[in-house]
């Protein structure tokens, strides 16, 4: 009996050796399974080792290695690199040539901290957002206006997509063009450009007030007056009114029901000024933007209705229902009057300042109702510069 068992073991061993010589697959590594549990473990380990290394798996440190880019900002590795993850870079981004899409920058700008206060010394700034068709012909006037007030303002410029915005390196406008797209007058792309400007300006947590301007706008007071007027205001300045005319209520589309009713419909000047929390609400909205994109088409102009209607529906108490940008609509035309060089006198600036009007400011009446004015042609630059010290105060 014992001899038979020994013969059987010898026979199995020979068979296993023969299989080892013939086989070239995974079975080769587990061929000794019948000889004992130790052989099974060794065979399994060999199979796993060959399988793992045949794919050249990267090490965990390689998998976690961040990608480094010098295009916009660089993760800190040496003292020669900029730390784009620092608190300073996060709350005060100084590089506007980012690669974020519209959806990405709108999403990031919509973030609102729940924690009260700021972990840094915050000086509230006014964001001046220029929506232009190209160059800024009145740029020297604005440069003089901003001079000496660097810590109290930020500048953002939106141009046609492929336009090269070239200014002197010592100008406050240098490097302030945001990623832009082409704008078609009277279309939703105008609203998209406004929201694009707001979103980029919101990335700087020091920006507290946001004013939209064009290349034909001018300031009619010195910077300190404009700054205090806006920063101290309890309200935003968005013209928002109802009128029973074809140019206002007549542009309402019943297809906007049930989300927007006619009694909620408002019209107003495109050139607004708003506080930070309202800017966050506007860039966060997708629902009503989609409705306007679908149903507000010429002769309905979204830039004259979207923000006035949206604020009227949800944030009316925060709005002064007036604009701080004066425009001459005395002419009967689709566009306001334009002032050329021959029109510029001391009297024109003084008349804009003192129209004999009274308006509400922080629940009190005041005669200072406008801070900016438009439209001024490029030929108006030289005479306007001559008035900065004698009339405008800068």
Automatic annotation (TrEMBL):
It is found in: Membrane. Keywords: Glycoprotein, Glycosyltransferase, Membrane, Transferase. One of its GO terms (molecular function) is glycosyltransferase activity. It is a single-pass type II membrane protein. InterPro entries: BC10-like (IPR044174), Glyco_trans_14 (IPR003406). One of its GO terms (cellular component) is membrane. It holds the Pfam family Branch. Its main location: membrane. This is Uncharacterized protein.
């Amino acid at each position: 009996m014992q001899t038979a068992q020994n013969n059987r073991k010898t026979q199995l061993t020979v068979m296993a050796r023969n299989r080892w010589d013939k086989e070239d697959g995974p079975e080769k590594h587990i061929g000794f399974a019948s000889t004992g549990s130790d052989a099974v473990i060794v065979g399994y380990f060999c199979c796993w080792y060959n399988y793992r290394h045949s794919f050249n798996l990267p090490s965990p440190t390689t998998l976690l290695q961040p990608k480094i880019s010098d295009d916009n900002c660089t993760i800190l590795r040496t003292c020669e690199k900029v730390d784009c993850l620092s608190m300073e870079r996060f709350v005060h981004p100084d590089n506007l040539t980012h690669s974020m899409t519209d959806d990405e920058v709108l999403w990031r700008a919509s973030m609102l901290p729940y924690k009260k206060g700021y972990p840094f010394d915050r000086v509230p700034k006014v964001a001046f957002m220029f929506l232009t068709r190209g160059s800024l012909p009145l740029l020297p006037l604005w440069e003089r206006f901003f001079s000496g007030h660097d810590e109290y303002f930020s500048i953002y410029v939106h141009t046609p997509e492929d336009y090269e915005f070239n200014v002197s390196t010592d100008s406050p406008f240098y490097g302030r063009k945001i990623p832009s797209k082409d704008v078609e007058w009277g279309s939703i792309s105008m609203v998209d450009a406004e929201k694009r400007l707001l979103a980029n300006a919101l990335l700087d947590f020091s920006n507290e007030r946001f004013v939209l301007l064009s290349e034909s706008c001018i300031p009619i007071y010195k910077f300190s007056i404009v700054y205090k007027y806006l920063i101290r205001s309890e309200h935003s300045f968005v013209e928002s009114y109802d009128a029973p005319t074809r140019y206002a209520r007549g542009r309402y589309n019943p297809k906007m029901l049930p989300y927007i009713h006619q009694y909620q419909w408002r019209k107003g000047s495109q050139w607004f000024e708003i506080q930070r929390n309202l800017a966050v609400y506007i860039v966060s909205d997708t629902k009503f933007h989609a409705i306007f994109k679908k149903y507000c088409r010429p002769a309905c102009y979204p830039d004259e209705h979207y923000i006035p209607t949206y604020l009227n529906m949800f944030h009316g108490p925060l709005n002064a229902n007036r604009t701080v940008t004066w425009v001459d609509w005395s002419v009967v035309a689709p566009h306001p009057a334009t002032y050329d060089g021959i029109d510029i006198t001391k009297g024109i600036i003084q008349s804009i300042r003192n129209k004999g009007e009274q308006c509400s400011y922080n629940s009190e009446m005041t005669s200072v109702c406008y801070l900016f004015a438009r439209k001024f042609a490029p030929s108006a630059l030289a005479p306007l510069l001559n008035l900065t010290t004698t009339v405008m105060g800068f």
